[in-house]
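Justification of computing resources. Each target in the renewal requires a structure prediction run like the one illustrated here; the chain below, 250 residues long, is used simply to show the kind of job we budget for.
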Amino acid sequence: MNIKLLEKLGMTVREIKIYLKLLELGECGANTLSKRLEENRTSTYSLLLSLQKKGFVSYMIKHGVKYFVPMDPKLLIERYFEGAKSLKSILPELLAIHNQFEQKPKITFYEGVNGIKQIGEILLEVPNSVRDSFMGVDKKTIHPEIKKYYEEDFIPRRIELGIKYRGIVAGYIPMSIKHEKTQKGQLRELKYVDPKKLPIKNHIDIFPNNKVALYSYHKDEMMGVIIEHEAFYATMKTVFALAWAGVEVL
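Resulting structure tokens:
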């Protein structure tokens, strides 16, 4: 494989080695990974944290142990498609490595600006679908880079993909700067609640397929989690339906 193409994504040669090994294993703790690579554990862990900060790696907790998980190759390619179209040539090789590990994680954690953006990219995976959300955003505390990402990138693409949004909102809500600033123009239906009586401090998205995302836009609390579980998804759909029916349009 031509790793020079992967370097264009912003990974170093040593980070690429770790990323490819994680693709092969699917998920792995730092100790096991360092042994598989025959590398020092401290340096391996440091490189994993660097990859996590860049958004190429996330993590999950199993039985109190931290397991690192590689970014899905398809999302990795789409994320950089505009500036690195040549990367598509290595997608089959990356998927071949990734698909060797059949058991995929059901709970994945994300941190930092890149982590929240990665959740956004996952939310765009199913065109012409409906996304139900509880949304609580404080305009004073939302991270400025995330605000810009949503207004100039994420929401315009969501609209172009035909992904409809139903939201129960407490507070500020970002809008696409490229579309008409109406509910129809923004391809969404909203119901507002009084944030003093019914505070919503974080964001919850319920979306295909059997996924629920919980995350924060707060500039000092950039973290989130995606849970993929049929029963949890069905329960959250019911919770949203009950809440939606009980909220009067202001």
